[in-house]
Design brief:
The protein is of the alpha/beta class. The protein contains 15 helices and 14 strands. It folds into two domains: 169 residues, Aspartate Aminotransferase, domain 1 (Alpha-Beta Complex); 249 residues, Aspartate Aminotransferase, domain 2. The two termini are 21 Å apart. It binds pyridoxal-5'-phosphate. One of its GO terms (cellular component) is cytoplasm.
């Protein structure tokens, strides 16, 4: 397998781009080597500039749940382009997408569209503060909520990959109202409530996806909601990754919890820049122009992105691939475990529907600390062997793999063979 053209573009990219990437998770910092440059993608496959074809489990870090260039999405967006790209005024499709989203999440009467998951969460946090009149926010170690200042502490994703505890450039004042708790540890949350009476909200990824996949144990989410509300704080579900992915109604539907504020992104735009935050009427009425919490956006509710979102979500609803995701997920999970056993490699697999990943550890992984027991050197060997076998995975131990509904049986059996080869390589 050759990477000559990718290598050339990487060197060229270094001149005017930072590290030749526009998001640090795309760098190959923790697996070695240089990032691949992509030419195109279709269905379950992604193809780099050297013509190497891979089965794609990155899926743009989640959005491409239908696979790439699904014909319904492509057709709808191509048609919409003919009417103009941005108006700075309302369109009917914003109302249509809002209805699809509010119908899927019972805790949402109203929604506001923004351009990214980061914007969705920073607005959701502001809303919790506006509604409660309090300042402090509890977040969980290992959860990533985008790159806003106040939540860039003990964050997962690229910070975990690069072993950064936080970000330079974030003033102390910006994080002074951020309290850190441990995932799956209600006592660590209780301790904050006992000490502080000005907590506006508790933000959580209902299923962790940015420290690798970490699943809430027992009734953690339900207990968290009860604890937050009992103390006059809101539960903010960051479903940027899990929304429309865990099932159509997100992780909240699977886990039987209704958050006070829900933040969305990724799948909701089907590959176009869309984020959203929403809640019950009494909460959303605080947002301008109805209320005094200001939040705006030149490109928010962008007409092309709205059409991409509508086409993606309506196709997804019709396909209803969630049972199938589970079946494919089980198959891949079992393949990892049986090859790992065959070659004597310590592996723990965490999976929630169509989100999964192996950790190279013999420990159960239920929080960030346990996730960090994974042997990242072994992951690097595993990653490159998967690439050589035609499988595109996120270049980090601390990112989730995603399934798309475009995966075929042939893709899955190729993946299983690749997993066997990669785990053998790890054992050598
Ligand atoms: N929240 C979660 C749970 C995420 O996984 C991400 C991105 O990976 C974000 C927020 C930030 O979204 P975006 O990258 O669209 O700004």
């Amino acid at each position: 397998m050759k990477f000559k053209k990718s290598q050339k573009l990487y060197n060229k990219g270094l001149v005017n781009l930072v590290g030749a990437v526009n998001s640090p998770v795309r760098a190959f910092a923790s697996v070695g080597g240089n990032p691949l440059f992509i030419e195109k993608a279709k269905g379950s496959k992604i193809i780099d500039v050297d013509g190497n074809s891979y089965i794609d489990y990155v899926l743009s870090y989640g959005p491409m749940i239908l696979g790439h260039r699904h014909k319904k999405v492509q057709k709808a967006v191509t048609k919409a382009l003919k009417n103009g790209y941005s108006f700075g005024a309302s369109t009917e499709n914003e109302i249509k997408l809002a209805k699809i989203v509010c119908d899927a999440f019972p805790g949402m009467d109203k929604v506001r569209f923004v351009n990214s998951g980061t914007e969705a969460v920073l607005s959701g946090i502001r809303l919790a503060r506006a509604y409660t009149g309090k300042d402090k926010i509890i977040k969980f170690s290992g959860c990533y909520h985008g790159h806003q200042d106040s939540l860039l502490v003990a964050a997962g994703s690229g910070l975990a990959t690069l072993s950064l505890p936080g970000s330079k450039g974030v003033p102390e004042g910006a994080v002074k109202n951020t309290l850190i708790a441990n995932y799956n540890d209600l006592e660590s949350v209780k301790a904050h409530f006992e000490k502080h009476d000005d907590i506006a909200g508790v933000i959580i990824e209902p299923v962790g996806g940015n420290m690798g996949v970490v699943i809430p144990q027992n009734n953690f989410l339900k207990d968290l909601k009860e604890l937050a509300n009992k103390n006059g704080a809101l539960l903010i579900a960051d479903e940027v990754m899990t929304g429309f992915r865990s099932t159509f109604g997100g992780a909240q539907e699977v886990l039987g919890v209704e958050a006070d504020i829900t933040c969305l992104g990724k799948v909701i735009g089907g590959g176009f820049p869309v984020g959203a935050y929403g809640a019950r009427n009494e909460i959303m009425e605080n947002v301008a122009p109805l209320g005094g919490m200001y939040q705006a956006g030149t490109l928010s509710g962008n007409p092309i992105a709205m059409v991409g979102g509508i086409a993606t979500l309506s196709t997804l609803k019709k396909q209803n691939p969630y049972k199938q995701f589970d079946a494919v997920g089980v198959e891949i999970e079992e393949a990892i475990l049986s090859s790992a056993q065959k070659y004597g490699v310590d592996v723990t697999v965490n999976r929630f529907g169509s989100m999964m990943n192996p950790f190279f550890t013999n420990k159960k992984v239920t929080n960030f600390e346990e996730a960090q027991t994974s042997d990242t050197k072994k992951f690097a060997v595993f990653f490159w062997e998967m690439i050589k076998n035609g499988i595109f995975l996120p270049p980090s131990q601390f990112e989730a793999w995603f399934l798309s509904s475009a995966l075929t049986e042939k893709n899955i059996s190729k993946t299983k063979k690749a997993l066997d080869n990669a785990l053998k390589a790890v054992s050598e």
